[in-house]
UniProtKB/TrEMBL annotation:
InterPro entries cross-referenced by the UniProt entry: Aa-tRNA-synt_II, aa-tRNA-synth_II, aa-tRNA-synth_II/BPL/LPL, Lys-tRNA-ligase_II, Lys-tRNA-ligase_II_bac/euk, Lys-tRNA-ligase_II_N, Lys-tRNA-synth_II_C, NA-bd_OB-fold
Amino acids binding Mg(2+) 1: E413, E420
Gene Ontology cellular component annotations, sorted alphabetically: cytosol
UniProt organism field: Lactobacillus selangorensis
PROSITE patterns: AA_TRNA_LIGASE_II
Record's protein name: Lysine--tRNA ligase
Assembly, per entry: Homodimer.
Keywords: Aminoacyl-tRNA synthetase, ATP-binding, Cytoplasm, Ligase, Magnesium, Metal-binding, Nucleotide-binding, Protein biosynthesis
CDD domains the UniProt entry points to: LysRS_core, LysRS_N
One Pfam family this sequence matches: tRNA-synt_2
Region annotation (Disordered) ranges: 1-21
RNA sequence: GGGUUGUUAGCUCAGCUGGCAGAGCAACGGACUCUUAAUCCGUGGGUCCGGGGUUCGAUCCCCCGACAACCCA
């Protein structure tokens, strides 16, 4: 699609509009005007003008005669012979400009007259109010800053072609203010997350993206190669194991917001690379992390949106109220009537799964099946923020056992509107237990689970020096942004989502 | 992995039962000194996603492929 414009039209590969714009660019050069100009001093952004002068009267503005300089992309244009109006757009919004031939002069007016929608202009002028009450900059001089050689998307409908929005995000940002707003909010959300954690004694750190073994989560990694070391390396699938090494090292409270990579399916909730937040705090347990998680969502929402009461895809969600807390086994019992507190063999559990139509793999044990029951029957019903805790040990190789019932671990996940938003545990700090969990994972891998963890000897060695009791948390930042900006797809909160390249035929394919 | 839908001018979209490819915006020429999806008159612009097939004739029907969106596992 991106190449479409280059292939159509005449022999030069240009369509009529592109040809006209190139001609206009040359015409500017011929007049001694650089179509790709230089620095331009702005006095205000469009938003600042609306803020400062939007409430003033026509007469007041006329009297004060405020001289300003603004710059932006011309989005619309309304000519009227010897006078013209246009809307200039900058990062924060738009403002109308008013250009009169008798004010700017014949030559300068011609520059405005010949300028195309999409060109970037600088305007010196004074602030006025039109008869219809629109705040406007009356130009005293038009400075040409950048020629756009391609036409912009439809000025009224914007860019709606989803594929093109993702592949050419800049066009989406230019023509769809909602999209621009969402990405600004994303920045504010990440900033608010940092602000909360920085204010609670956490140290932001950076750990390696290239790992010698991919651990900390269940996922297939991307593999790459180091020429210098002549070894294969894995792009990280989680931040966990390095951050906990830093807790061993005495940093006590650390967090990282970083890109992780999982070589798995792509859909509305998954992109191969995404941004994860993980935090670790020494001497905390699960209840501390629940408090942290709750405060984090609440404070970020209130800081960025000014409220904790939000709507996600039609579902009202209240982040201000205390989040519900329920044990996974209790939740399954509440919804299905099936009681997994009763000790049962793998065979018994598989029989229950057959009866209820729950799919399972050969290598699954009771814990895997409990989790499948939860995902199938309970997860979609959790609309308001709910902590589900007490996961089966089989699916949680890095969490500390529940001292009262070693079938389960001290772990929780946060669910809102049927989706998972956070995953946390009291960290397993017993190196002997950790080695056994890794060995169980290695066995699972042999039995066909290619997402199972490998044995990370170096990490076990770190634990042998002593990891203090620690509470850890992982939150998918992209999902959080989706929730707070009411985005239906993860691609709507990623500036450049992963896309398959458009097919280009190579020589040997022809 | 399976299913459904989509791909037509720079953008947004029509296109009937298979019969010369259409509109709005954008562009070009002209008129217009407070317009705002400016208006009025005129003009140009197409590899109908790609490749095969059926047919006198295919944007349309059939097959294969590309990319995307949505749903399901």
């Amino acid at each position: 699609m991106a190449n479409k414009g280059q292939k159509k039209g005449q022999d030069d590969g240009l369509n009529d509009q592109m040809r006209v714009r190139r001609d206009k660019m040359q015409a500017l050069r011929d007049k001694g005007i650089d179509p790709y100009g230089h620095r331009f001093d702005r006095t205000d952004t469009t938003a600042q003008l609306h803020e400062k002068y939007g409430e003033m009267s026509k007469e007041q503005l006329e009297k004060e005669h405020v001289e300003v300089a603004i710059a932006g992309r011309m989005m619309t244009k309304r000519g009227k012979g010897k006078v013209g109006f246009a809307d200039l757009q900058d990062r924060d919004g738009r403002i109308q400009i008013y250009v009169r031939k008798d004010v700017v002069g014949d030559d300068n007016y011609l520059i405005f007259k010949k300028a195309d929608i999409g060109d970037i202009l600088g305007i010196h002028g004074d602030v006025m109010m039109t008869d219809t009450g629109e705040l406007t900059v009356r130009a005293s001089h038009v400075t040409f800053l950048t020629k756009a050689l391609r036409p912009l998307p439809d000025k009224y409908h914007g860019l709606t072609n989803v594929e093109q929005k993702y592949r050419q995000r800049y066009l989406d940002l230019i023509s769809n203010p909602d999209s621009m707003d969402r990405f600004k909010k994303r920045t504010q959300i990440v900033s608010a997350v940092r602000s909360y954690l920085d204010g609670n004694g956490f140290l932001e750190v950076e750990t390696p993206v290239l790992h010698t073994s991919a651990g900390g989560a269940s996922a297939r990694p991307f593999i790459t190669h180091s020429n210098a070391l002549d070894i294969d390396l894995y792009l990280r699938i989680a931040l966990e194991l390095h951050l906990k090494r830093l807790i061993v090292g005495g940093m006590e409270r650390v967090y990282e917001i970083g890109r992780v990579f999982r070589n798995e399916g792509i859909d509305t909730k998954h992109n191969p690379e995404f941004t994860e937040l993980e935090t670790y705090a020494a001497y905390w347990d699960l209840s501390d992390v629940m408090t942290e998680t709750e405060e984090l969502f609440r404070s970020v929402s209130n800081k960025v949106l000014g409220t904790g009461k939000i709507t996600y895809q039609g579902q009202d969600v209240d982040l201000d109220k205390p989040f519900a807390r329920e044990h996974m086994v209790d939740a399954i019992k509440r919804v299905t009537g099936i009681d997994f507190w009763t000790p049962m063999s793998t065979e018994d559990a598989k029989k229950l799964a057959d009866e209820k139509g729950v799919h399972y793999e050969d290598f699954w044990q009771t814990g895997h099946i409990i989790n499948a029951f939860f995902e199938q029957f309970v997860e979609p019903t959790l609309k308001q923020p709910t902590f589900i805790y007490g996961h089966p040990i089989e699916i949680s190789p890095l969490a500390k056992k529940d001292p009262k019932d070693p079938r389960f671990v001290q772990r929780f996940e946060l669910f809102i509107d049927g989706n998972e938003y956070g995953n946390a545990f009291t960290e397993l700090n017993d190196p002997i237990d950790q080695r056994e969990r890794f060995e169980a994972q290695a066995k699972e891998r042999e039995e066909g689970n290619d997402e199972a963890h490998g044995i990370d000897e170096d990490y076990v060695e770190a634990l042998e020096y002593g990891l203090p009791p620690t509470g850890g948390l992982g939150i998918g930042i992209d999902r959080m942004v989706m929730l707070l900006t009411d985005a239906p797809s993860i691609r709507d909160v990623l500036l450049f989502p992963t896309m398959r390249p458009e097919k280009k035929l190579s020589e040997d394919e022809l």
